[in-house]
Amino acid sequence: MVVYYPHPKLAKEHKTLVYTGSRSRELANSVASKLGLKLCDFRLSRYADGEIDIDMGDDLYNANVLIVHSTQPPANDTLMELLLMVSTAKRGGASSITAVVPYLCYARQTDKHTKGSAISSADVALLLQAVGLQRLITLDIHSVVCSGFYTTTLFESHLVHSVAVKYFIDLNLNNVVVVAPDAGAQKRTVHFKDEYNSHFAKRPELMADTALVYKTRPQANKVDSVYISGSVEGMNVILVDDMIDTAGTIVKSAELIKERGALRVFAFVTHGLFSGPALERLNNSQFEKVVVTNSIQQSPAVLASPKIHVLDVSDFLANLLRP
């Protein structure tokens, strides 16, 4: 778990109202239920030109407003929904406003690649703070640089490896190696390995090791070549990363790992975006199973895939919010 700022719990002396937008209703309903609450009535409509209109009701004054809402694709629409919910709660006189945003969009854009390029993650932070968000909880943020963009909002990012590790332990795997699909995932991979190994303190022969895949990427969503550092021959491999977008990188990594003699190849990825050709690539890949969380509400096609397993993080999120 990574916490960047200390945070208050929801104040007991105020009523708590739970809202969600158009794309996260299943997860939000589950989180609310585990907290002994119900989702509030919420109206969202669109004008003919695509503008969003929302109505959160008349009961906002002096309430703890809890918004459970992923800014999943289409990111610009779901981000605007979040901004409007926060600003409406602020204008309605809410006592506190907390947003649980399991997947936070634009987190990959944290620096300038050219003189004219945007730092979109910083701009999203400015917008959320400007409309009055007090506390932001997200899962497995792509870059810790994002935390520095929040100066008036309490910002937290939590790794959910404890949830994933339980799944893999139940598989009773031997000779496990946890692999980072690129250099940026190394710290995440070490954390996953440590969480996994903590369950085998008395059986060190079952503890996992780590390896790293290097890649060259000529442009976004395109991978030129991949190389591996570390041995995977005869091993059960778990690739760990924060997100799958088009799946090009992780599928190439799985192919290379299998070529190097791995017995079985799995992946745990917190956020399954599954853009464009991702689902087809994964269904035809070397993976035995790709495990993601329900930080993003998946389509029926994804849920029907024999290669993909979705873990529920509603208990994990509810525990973060309990007094």
UniProtKB/TrEMBL annotation:
<dbReference type="InterPro" id="IPR029099">
    <property type="entry name" value="Pribosyltran_N"/>
</dbReference>
<dbReference type="Pfam" id="PF13793">
    <property type="entry name" value="Pribosyltran_N"/>
</dbReference>
<comment type="pathway">
    <text>Metabolic intermediate biosynthesis; 5-phospho-alpha-D-ribose 1-diphosphate biosynthesis; 5-phospho-alpha-D-ribose 1-diphosphate from D-ribose 5-phosphate (route I): step 1/1.</text>
</comment>
<dbReference type="GO" id="GO:0016301">
    <property type="term" value="F:kinase activity"/>
</dbReference>
<keyword id="KW-0547">Nucleotide-binding</keyword>
<dbReference type="GO" id="GO:0004749">
    <property type="term" value="F:ribose phosphate diphosphokinase activity"/>
</dbReference>
<keyword id="KW-0418">Kinase</keyword>
<keyword id="KW-0460">Magnesium</keyword>
<dbReference type="GO" id="GO:0006015">
    <property type="term" value="P:5-phosphoribose 1-diphosphate biosynthetic process"/>
</dbReference>
<dbReference type="GO" id="GO:0005524">
    <property type="term" value="F:ATP binding"/>
</dbReference>
<keyword id="KW-0808">Transferase</keyword>
<dbReference type="Pfam" id="PF14572">
    <property type="entry name" value="Pribosyl_synth"/>
</dbReference>
<keyword id="KW-0479">Metal-binding</keyword>
<protein>
    <recommendedName>
        <fullName>ribose-phosphate diphosphokinase</fullName>
        <ecNumber>2.7.6.1</ecNumber>
    </recommendedName>
</protein>
<dbReference type="InterPro" id="IPR029057">
    <property type="entry name" value="PRTase-like"/>
</dbReference>
<feature type="domain" description="Ribose-phosphate pyrophosphokinase N-terminal">
    <location>
        <begin position="18"/>
        <end position="132"/>
    </location>
</feature>
<dbReference type="GO" id="GO:0006164">
    <property type="term" value="P:purine nucleotide biosynthetic process"/>
</dbReference>
<dbReference type="GO" id="GO:0005737">
    <property type="term" value="C:cytoplasm"/>
</dbReference>
<dbReference type="InterPro" id="IPR005946">
    <property type="entry name" value="Rib-P_diPkinase"/>
</dbReference>
<keyword id="KW-0067">ATP-binding</keyword>
<comment type="similarity">
    <text>Belongs to the ribose-phosphate pyrophosphokinase family.</text>
</comment>
<keyword id="KW-0545">Nucleotide biosynthesis</keyword>
<dbReference type="InterPro" id="IPR000836">
    <property type="entry name" value="PRTase_dom"/>
</dbReference>
<dbReference type="GO" id="GO:0002189">
    <property type="term" value="C:ribose phosphate diphosphokinase complex"/>
</dbReference>
<dbReference type="GO" id="GO:0000287">
    <property type="term" value="F:magnesium ion binding"/>
</dbReference>
